[in-house]
Amino acid sequence: MEIAKVCDSLVDWLRERINEAGARGAVFGLSGGIDSAVVGALCKRAFPKSCLGLIMPCYSNLKDEEDAVKVAEKFGIPYKKIVLNSVYDEFLNILDKSDDKMAIANIKPRLRMITLYYYAALNNYLVVGTGNKSELTVGYFTKYGDGGVDLLPLGNLVKKQVRGLAVYLGIPQDIIEKPPTGGLWEGQTDEGEMGITYEELDNYILTGRAKPEIEEKIKSMNRKSEHKRKLPLKPAF
């Protein structure tokens, strides 16, 4: 499907799903990355007068915050900045001390999820997530964090397809080219943490072909993260 039709289809899909739910519009996080920029632009097209982007720094890179504002202003997206530093600090203060870097880092996206649902409730909006098919396939998202959303418009697009959509929508080039990161800690990148490149991952998803070690790594990550892609299990009786 040509990119213009993909864009129109996603905008229509967002509008239909949100209207079906009896909601008024969409709320989403603006992180300064390509995925959130694309989602923001799509939501603005679907609900020009009833969408809201939340910029939620939590000891985040200042450049990411600046890029999030740049996207909001370029597309005319209403936005709020909610600084979560003090909430994060206070939450850590009441928990058992730990050196587990990932357990601590995952608090950040879960605080953002709470914030998104607060504003969703205030406005009768649905929470629109920014995850793409590449991330979903290997479980590269925080359960009940950035994975805690109502709709995933990019869920059937791999990363390189998201880049194509970003170009079509007019996302600033520096944001398109910037190394993807979850913003969990200083210097963290998606590819560095996954141990594979998006090119390798996308190619395997689209063609089923990869070097044996890459294929096994993707399959292993998919198996281990299966619980993230399903509702909680319950007994048969």
Automatic annotation (TrEMBL):
Pathway: Cofactor biosynthesis; NAD(+) biosynthesis; NAD(+) from deamido-NAD(+) (ammonia route): step 1/1. Signal peptide: none annotated. Mg(2+) binds at D35, E135. The keyword ATP-binding applies. GO terms for biological process: NAD+ biosynthetic process. One of its GO terms (cellular component) is cytoplasm. One of its GO terms (molecular function) is metal ion binding. InterPro entries: NAD/GMP_synthase, NAD_synthase, NH(3)-dep_NAD(+)_synth, Rossmann-like_a/b/a_fold. Residues 8-232 form the NAD/GMP synthase domain. ATP binds at G29, L30, S31, G32, G33, I34, D35, S36, T130, K159, T181. It is an enzyme of class 6 (ligase). Its EC number is 6.3.1.5. It comes from the Bacteria. Catalyzes the ATP-dependent amidation of deamido-NAD to form NAD. Uses ammonia as a nitrogen source. This is NH(3)-dependent NAD(+) synthetase. The lineage of its organism: Bacteria, Bacillati, Bacillota, Clostridia, Thermosediminibacterales. The gene is nadE.
